[in-house]
């Protein structure tokens, strides 16, 4: 039955100011969205009391026909309940965790003389699982270490006490090559084997130091009892463990048990990195993708992802390091945003991992789907630069002159965020005397777009002026003359590249120095600068050579133009015979030229 909007209004007025979980339903009774709140009344009412910038949020609110809620005791209960409901119903407007669920685990099987092996299937039979391991190489390195230190059995025999007593089994090749201690024939007691499993579990939890201490005590005991072979065997194990520990990513021996979570955003995709630190070393690390559905905050995303990752990696750390302080509370857990020291270094390490993962995804996308990659960059630019449409066609202007000589302006063109060199243009300034950057920019912009209008060519979606407010103002004057102001976006870039100026705004817009938008703008400016400087140098060289010809008595500018038109360069003019020169400029001038270039000494 279809709900009425008046029902929604009544429910908003009577919502409790308690922590809980709310659910939005459409007119067909389908769950659209599940959310958590410290204060249900404030949180739910906020959806209906403000204009939403995000289109999907606006559409969601329009579809809501009913609201249901569940009050809980604590914020932690709300967090866990929200997570469970999202997993059960998969609402359309909730963010989803994009992740590979087939990562391998290390399993310690629930059985007599437990086996230790890798698996991708979690069976709820009482066995203990450690992981998952995003890197199979890391997992196999760990398994090899365990088998070198404490060789657990690899067979699948039923090693019950009665079968061992009856002598049902015989030792296999693994025993004879020292890879197993033969529990199947009673050559290794259950107490000794289980003690070995305890040590293995400590290693899997990252507590290598305690294992080393235990082994050192056993080595000392063996040596005092004159069991020197056993003591030497234990010493070898200690050396293997010390070597493995040295290769581990040790962050600080003073940091015992913490989790670290950070995130990097890329439009609607958020990359969340999660690290588990135990006894001063990173024992787990993973980056997952979360796709934004609405305008979820960083806190919303972290509190969505964190419970699942902590459950998956079996973390019970009491402290979670984050980039900035969070309002949300989890029972028995402290969120902390470090500002300096080893813990701050962990935040930076986690961020680097999230960024590397994002870059890897971008590179893969660029190879697999170049069009999608381009569209993503253009969408990012549209958002960052507050544009009305995708900047498929961008033009950038830059002026070049040295001490006011030979002023030129360069216009470079990017299409689909890449240089379109066939469309590059340069302008030899015709109406400006001396070094006047504003007038030069005014002329170049006017000439460029006057021609595009006359030839009925498409205008760019974005014009970039290399310069501050003055150059931007000069360019705007030219657009106004052509009645183009407001028809295409235009911005100015200051000497500090991350400062962008907009028409009418006194304060600049600042871009993240690492953003893709800034990288494209930097590429545009570098190209405009290179193209302008190259043309400027060519003009100065040509003029310098022409000036050499004009210094010859009896040779004027018209004669120089005639010579360069035929011979192309002063060098080739010098190589000509007097007769050849006379054919172009007459005998008198030819004789003056020939004598100038061929004077003795």
What's the SSE blueprint?
Layout: H1 5-14, E1 20-25, E2 31-37, H2 40-48, H3 55-63, E3 66-71, H4 75-89, E4 96-98, E5 105-108, E6 116-119, E7 128-130, H5 136-149, H6 161-165, H7 173-176, H8 190-204, H9 208-224, H10 228-247, E8 257-266, E9 269-278, E10 281-291, H11 298-312, E11 319-321, E12 334-336, H12 341-368, H13 370-384, E13 393-402, E14 405-415, E15 418-419, E16 425-428, H14 437-454, E17 462-466, H15 469-481, E18 489-493, E19 499-501, E20 509-510, H16 516-550, H17 557-567, H18 570-574, H19 578-585, H20 587-597
Parallel strand pairs: 8-11, 11-12, 13-17, 17-18
Antiparallel strand pairs: 1-2, 1-3, 4-10, 5-6, 5-7, 8-9, 9-10, 13-14, 14-15, 14-16, 18-19, 19-20
Helix pairs in contact: 4-11, 9-10, 12-13, 14-15, 19-20
Any descriptors?
601 residues, 8-stranded mixed sheet, 20 strands, 46% helix, elongated
Task: Note down, in words, how this protein is organized.
With 601 residues, the protein is of the alpha+beta class. It has helices at 5-14, 40-48, 55-63, 75-89, 136-149, 161-165, 173-176, 190-204, 208-224, 228-247, 298-312, 341-368, 370-384, 437-454, 469-481, 516-550, 557-567, 570-574, 578-585, 587-597; strands at 20-25, 31-37, 66-71, 96-98, 105-108, 116-119, 128-130, 257-266, 269-278, 281-291, 319-321, 334-336, 393-402, 405-415, 418-419, 425-428, 462-466, 489-493, 499-501, 509-510. Helix 9 (208-224) runs antiparallel to helix 10 (228-247) and helix 12 crosses helix 13 (370-384). It is elongated. It starts with a helix and ends with a helix. The model is unreliable at 1-6 (pLDDT under 50).
């Amino acid at each position: 039955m279809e709900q009425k909007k008046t029902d929604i209004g009544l429910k908003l007025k009577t919502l409790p100011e308690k922590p809980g979980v709310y659910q939005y339903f459409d007119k067909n009774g389908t769950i659209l969205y599940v959310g958590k709140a410290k204060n249900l009344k404030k949180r739910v009412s906020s959806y209906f009391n403000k204009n939403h910038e995000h289109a999907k949020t606006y559409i969601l609110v329009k579809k809501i026909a009913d609201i249901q809620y569940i009050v809980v005791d604590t914020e932690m209960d709300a967090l866990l309940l929200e997570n469970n409901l999202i997993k059960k119903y998969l609402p359309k407007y909730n963010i989803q965790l994009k992740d590979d669920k087939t990562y391998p685990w290390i399993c310690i099987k629930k059985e007599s003389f437990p086996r230790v092996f890798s698996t991708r299937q979690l069976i709820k039979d009482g066995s203990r699982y450690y992981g998952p391991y995003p890197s199979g190489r890391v997992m196999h390195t760990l398994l090899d270490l365990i088998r070198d230190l404490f060789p657990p059995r690899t067979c699948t025999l039923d090693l019950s006490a009665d079968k061992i007593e009856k002598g049902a089994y015989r030792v296999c090749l693994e025993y004879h090559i020292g890879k197993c201690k033969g529990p199947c024939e009673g050559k290794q007691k259950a107490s000794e084997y289980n003690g070995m499993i305890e040590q293995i579990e400590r290693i899997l939890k990252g507590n290598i130091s305690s294992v080393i201490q235990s082994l050192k005590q056993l080595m000392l005991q063996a040596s005092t009892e004159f069991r020197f072979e056993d003591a030497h065997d234990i010493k070898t194990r200690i050396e293997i463990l010390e070597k493995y520990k040295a290769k581990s990513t040790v962050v600080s021996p003073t940091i015992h048990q913490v989790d670290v979570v950070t995130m990097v955003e890329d439009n609607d995709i958020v990359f969340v990195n999660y690290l588990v630190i135990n006894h001063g070393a990173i024992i787990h690390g993973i980056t997952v993708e979360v796709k934004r559905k609405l305008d979820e905050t960083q806190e919303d995303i972290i509190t969505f992802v964190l419970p699942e990752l902590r459950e998956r990696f079996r973390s019970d750390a009491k402290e979670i390091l984050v980039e900035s302080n969070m309002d949300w509370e989890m029972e028995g857990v402290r969120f902390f945003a470090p500002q300096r020291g080893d813990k701050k270094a962990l935040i930076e390490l986690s961020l680097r991992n999230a960024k590397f993962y994002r870059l890897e995804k971008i590179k893969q996308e660029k190879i697999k789907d170049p069009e999608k990659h381009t569209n993503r960059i253009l969408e990012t630019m549209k958002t960052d630069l507050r544009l009305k449409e995708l900047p498929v066609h961008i033009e950038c202007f830059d002026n070049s002159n040295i001490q006011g000589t030979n002023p030129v302006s360069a216009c470079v063109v990017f299409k689909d965020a890449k240089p379109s060199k066939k469309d590059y243009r340069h302008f030899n300034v015709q109406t400006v005397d001396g070094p006047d950057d504003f007038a030069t920019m005014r002329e170049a912009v006017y000439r460029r777009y006057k021609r595009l209008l006359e030839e009925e060519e498409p205008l760019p979606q974005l014009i970039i002026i290399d310069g501050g407010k003055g150059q931007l103002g000069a360019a705007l004057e030219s657009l106004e003359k052509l009645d183009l102001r407001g028809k295409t976006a235009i911005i100015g870039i200051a000497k500090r590249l991350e400062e962008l100026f907009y028409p009418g705004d006194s304060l600049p817009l600042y871009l993240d120095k690492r953003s893709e938008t800034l990288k494209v703008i930097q590429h545009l400016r570098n190209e405009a600068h290179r193209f302008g400087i190259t043309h400027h140098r060519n003009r100065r060289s040509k003029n310098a050579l022409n000036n050499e010809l004009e210094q010859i008595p009896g040779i004027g500018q018209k004669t120089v133009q005639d010579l360069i038109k035929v011979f192309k360069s002063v060098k080739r003019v010098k190589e000509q015979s007097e007769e050849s020169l006379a054919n172009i400029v007459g005998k008198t001038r030819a004789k003056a030229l020939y004598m100038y270039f061929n004077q003795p000494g």
